[in-house]
Specification:
- The structure is a single chain.
- By secondary structure, the protein is mainly alpha-helical.
- The protein has a domain of 156 residues.
- 68% of the residues lie in helices and 3% in strands.
- A two-stranded antiparallel sheet has the order 1-2. It has a two-stranded antiparallel ribbon with strand order 3-4.
- Helix 5 runs antiparallel to helix 6 and helix 17 crosses helix 18.
- The longest helix is centred in the last third of the chain and has 52 residues.
Length: 534
């Protein structure tokens, strides 16, 4: 089953995008906060004094956002506060496959995989501090001293953590008070932020779409484009299409990329009772793509699909495609979307380079790059399956895949097989992760790995399990059904052989016993015949 390629909008997107970009930056953010407050201890006092005395609401708003940004730096788990409206739009892609951040383990991390009886056990080679290393190698009094030191360090860490939480809470509370005050005074950006928090249940606010809409409407009247878009989405849900479309146009006139994209999709799909306008949609998507620097990757991605004529339910004449740059422009747009972190674009590019589509030459090194991006940063399960195949390098693949894979490796411009060593462990690991998510092709391939012994000892029982899972998940996966039948026949034959062997064994033992008894009787008889009575 291939992933859906059609992007659509809901109300969560930029929030999720920003979280992706901020992942792993907690340490540097805390250092920034510490530097700011340590080297400028009077900065907040001075800023507070200015905000309190000033009647300039923009100064007050800037101060409130500063407080919230600094507060977020004290929490390693919470994402940084987003002071810029361009990063605050709650628009989301209904994912081609919903991306959750299970883990961001890359193939170049310090993880190794061991298999015991067919079960994968990830063993993390974590970094150990010198204190831990010394503790494990010491004995007697040294261990007791290190234990006490460990306890002191843990207590110190707890105190530091409590101090961070206290500072964060103090800064947050003050920032929120300012935002609430300014929102109630109809300051547009503050009203939008408060509406966003209530809409998402952030900063301890109880979720309420009704209250959120109230603040969005205040912000929309103050010409905040993101708020206009949010109110437009509300009217769209209420099927008030005329009002929704007008709000989208107003937001687009203020330069909001997502508004351009939404209007383009209305034209492309013929929504809101309108007729399809493919040319108008392409022009709007080009405009949105040009404006899209860090948000709304859906615009260049959709454009890439249209220029390769892969957008569902829309057939574009080849002349029109050529007028807008053809397939060469399509890959450029897809790369733009991939650079912004869109998983579907990353996977699509990997597939194009792997299969050599649209006049692009087969380049497995590039395919690997995009598959790895999609798999490691976005948990794209389809990319994981493709990565597994590349790591296995076509060696001992299922029979029906052998010819295709060998052809790909022969035509590969990057000479993947010669430049990269085969890695059975990585092949097994990525396949197992995708199979755990229920991808039929991954279940089938993992069954094959267990049957043949790739990255794991042979285990026919586990092979049967994954073949059956592929059939179940893939609604009668043809190849898995065939392998399952063959394997069941083979296992049944082996069981019958073992059964025959166990039934023959008692007969052999009985024969041995009879033979031994006869020999003893003959020996005794011989002794009796030679015996002389005294």
């Amino acid at each position: 089953m291939a992933p859906s390629m059609t992007p659509s909008l809901s109300t969560r997107m930029l929030q999720q995008q920003y979280m992706q970009k901020q992942h792993g930056m907690a340490a540097s953010r805390y250092a920034k906060a510490s530097y700011s407050l340590t080297n400028h201890p009077d900065a907040i006092k001075l800023y507070r004094s200015m905000a309190t005395k000033s009647k300039d609401r923009q100064v007050q708003l800037t101060y409130a956002k500063y407080l919230l940004e600094i507060a977020s730096l004290y929490d390693e788990k919470r994402q940084a506060f987003r002071p810029h409206l361009s990063l605050s739009l709650p628009v989301s892609l209904k994912h081609y496959h919903r991306q959750r951040r299970y883990s961001n383990t890359s193939l170049h991390s310090t993880h190794s995989v061991h298999t015991v009886n067919g079960d994968e056990r990830a063993v993390t080679a974590s970094r150990r501090s010198s204190m831990e290393t010394h503790f494990t190698s010491s004995t007697g009094g040294g261990m007791r001293r290190d234990s006490a030191l460990t306890q002191q360090l843990l207590e110190g860490a707890d105190e530091e953590s409590a101090s961070k939480r206290k500072k964060r809470k103090m800064l947050e509370n003050e920032g929120i008070r300012w935002i609430k005050r300014l929102a109630n005074e109809h300051v547009g950006e503050a009203a939008y932020l408060l509406g966003l928090w209530v809409d998402r249940g952030m900063y301890g606010f109880r979720k309420s779409s009704t209250k959120a809409l109230k603040y969005y409407e205040i912000a929309a009247k103050e010409k905040v484009p993101e708020a206009m878009f949010a109110v437009g989405q509300y009217h769209e849900k209420e099927q008030d299409y005329m009002t929704a479309f007008q709000l989208y146009e107003d937001a687009a006139s203020l330069g909001l990329v997502e508004a351009f994209y939404r209007i383009a999709m209305i034209n492309l799909n013929g929504e809101f009772g309108s007729r399809k306008n493919i040319v108008g949609a392409i022009q709007l998507l080009i405009k949105a793509s040009e404006k899209s620097t860090g948000t709304c990757p859906e615009a260049p991605y959709t454009l890439g699909l249209l220029l390769t004529n892969d957008y569902p339910s829309v057939d574009i004449p080849s002349e029109l495609i050529q007028n807008y740059g053809g397939t060469f422009a399509a890959t450029t747009y897809l790369e733009h979307a991939a650079e912004m972190g869109m998983s579907a674009a990353q996977y699509r590019l990997g597939y194009i380079y792997e299969m050599g589509l649209y006049g692009v030459r087969i380049h497995l090194a590039k395919a690997f790059h995009f598959y790895e991006l999609a798999a490691t940063t976005n948990d794209n399960v389809y990319a994981m399956v493709r990565l597994s195949r590349l790591y296995n390098q076509g060696v001992q693949v299922p029979p029906e895949q052998l010819e295709e894979q060998m052809a790909l490796f022969e035509q590969d411009e990057s000479h993947w097989v010669k430049s990269r060593p085969r890695d059975e462990d990585a092949a097994f690991k990525w396949c197992h992760r995708a199979a755990d998510k229920g991808v039929p092709d991954a279940c089938y391939l993992l069954g094959w790995y267990y049957e043949v012994g790739i990255g794991v000892p042979r285990d026919y029982q586990r092979a049967q399990y994954y073949y059956a899972k592929a059939v179940r998940k893939g609604k009668g996966h043809k190849e898995a059904t065939t392998r399952l039948q063959l394997l069941e026949t083979m296992v049944k034959s082996q069981k019958n052989e073992r059964k025959r062997a166990t039934t023959l064994l008692p007969d052999k033992k009985l024969s041995f016993i009879h033979g031994s008894a006869s020999a003893v009787a003959a020996k005794n008889s011989s002794k009796d015949s030679n015996c002389t009575i005294m």
